[in-house]
Design a protein that fits this description.
By secondary structure, the protein is mainly β. The protein has 2 helices and 30 strands.
C-alpha cells in the first residue's frame, strides 16, 4: 500500500542539496542508499508527521509544498523519512498539501495541520498546528502549536505553544508556553510560561513563570516566579518569588521572596509566618519579606534596591 509523504523546498523546487524536484510525476534519487542516515535519498515527513525544523524552508512565504506518493522503500530517520522513488501528486501552497495529507490520515499529527473534534472527540495537530476539541474532548498540538479543549477536556501544547481547556479540563503547555484551564481545571506551564486555572483549579508554572488560580485554587511558581491565588486559595513561590493569596488564603514564598495575604490569610516567608490582620503589625494585602529576625513590609526602597542590583 502506498503512503503519502509531505515535504517542502525553495521557490524553484530545489532541496537543500540542490536536487530539483519535478512539479508533478515520477521522481527518483540519483544516489540512493538505504542506510538509516540523512542523505543519499529523497526526504520528507511520512504521513505529514515529524520535526518541522529539519528543513530551512518550512516558514518561507515562497516555499513550494509537495505531496509525494511512495510505494514501499521508506526509511525512518526519526523526525523525517527518506525513500528512493515516488510520484509527486501535488505542488503548491502549504494549505493544500497539508489538507491532502490530513484527508488521507485524519488521526495523524500533521505538521501545520488544523484539527477540530466535536463532543467527546479527539483533535491532534503536529508542529505549528492547531487542535481544537469540544466538550469532553482532547486536543493536542506539537511544538509552537495551539491546543484548545472544551468543558471536561484536556489540552496539551508543545514548547512555545498555548493550551486552553474548559471547565474541569486540564491544560499543559511546554517551555515558554501558556496554559489556561477553566473552573475545577488544572493548568501547567513550563519555565517562563504562564498558567491560569479557574476556581478550585490548580495552576503551576516553572522557573520565572507566572501561576494564577481562582478562589479555593492552588497556584505554584518556581524560583523568581509569581503565584497568585484568590480567596481561601493557596499561592506558593520559590526563592526570590512572589506569592499572593486572597482573604483566608495562604501565601508562601522562599527566603528571598515576598508573601502577601488578604484578611485572615496566612503568609509564610522564609522562616516566619503570620496571619494577616490578626498577627500584631501584619496587615492584609501588604507584601512582606523575611529580614532575619521577623517579617517586614516591603517598601518602595526595597523595590528600588532590587532593580539597581539587576
Amino acid at each position: 500500500m502506498s503512503e503519502l509523504v509531505l515535504r517542502c523546498s525553495g521557490p524553484d523546487r530545489r532541496s537543500h542539496g540542490g536536487f530539483r524536484w519535478p512539479e508533478r510525476g515520477p521522481v527518483e534519487a540519483p544516489d540512493w542508499d538505504p542506510e538509516p542516515v540523512c542523505g543519499r535519498g529523497l526526504h520528507g515527513w511520512l504521513r505529514g508527521e515529524g520535526d518541522v525544523s529539519v528543513t530551512d524552508y518550512h516558514d518561507a512565504t515562497d516555499a513550494v509544498w509537495q505531496v509525494v506518493e511512495v510505494e514501499g522503500n521508506l526509511v525512518d530517520l526519526y523526525g523525517k523519512a527518506k525513500f528512493s522513488r515516488g510520484v509527486v501528486v501535488y505542488s503548491g501552497p502549504r494549505e493544500g498539501a497539508v489538507r491532502m495529507v490530513q484527508d488521507r490520515y485524519p488521526d495523524a499529527a500533521v505538521i501545520y495541520g488544523t484539527d477540530t473534534a466535536g463532543d467527546h472527540g479527539t483533535a491532534t495537530a503536529g508542529d505549528h498546528g492547531t487542535a481544537a476539541a469540544a466538550r469532553w474532548g482532547t486536543a493536542s498540538a506539537g511544538n509552537h502549536g495551539t491546543a484548545t479543549a472544551g468543558r471536561w477536556g484536556a489540552a496539551t501544547a508543545g514548547d512555545h505553544g498555548s493550551a486552553a481547556a474548559g471547565g474541569r479540563g486540564t491544560a499543559k503547555a511546554g517551555y515558554r508556553g501558556t496554559a489556561a484551564a477553566g473552573d475545577h481545571g488544572f493548568a501547567t506551564a513550563g519555565d517562563h510560561g504562564f498558567a491560569t486555572a479557574g476556581r478550585w483549579g490548580t495552576a503551576k508554572a516553572g522557573y520565572r513563570g507566572t501561576a494564577a488560580a481562582g478562589h479555593h485554587g492552588s497556584a505554584t511558581a518556581g524560583h523568581h516566579g509569581t503565584a497568585t491565588a484568590g480567596d481561601r486559595g493557596s499561592a506558593t513561590a520559590g526563592y526570590y518569588g512572589s506569592a499572593t493569596a486572597g482573604d483566608g488564603g495562604t501565601a508562601e514564598a522562599g527566603y528571598y521572596g515576598t508573601a502577601t495575604a488578604g484578611y485572615g490569610g496566612r503568609l509564610v516567608c522564609g522562616r516566619h509566618s503570620a496571619i494577616a490582620g490578626e498577627t500584631p503589625g501584619v496587615k492584609p494585602d501588604v507584601p512582606y519579606r523575611d529580614v532575619g529576625a521577623a517579617l517586614a513590609p516591603l517598601t518602595r526602597w526595597d523595590v528600588t534596591d532590587d532593580i539597581d542590583e539587576d
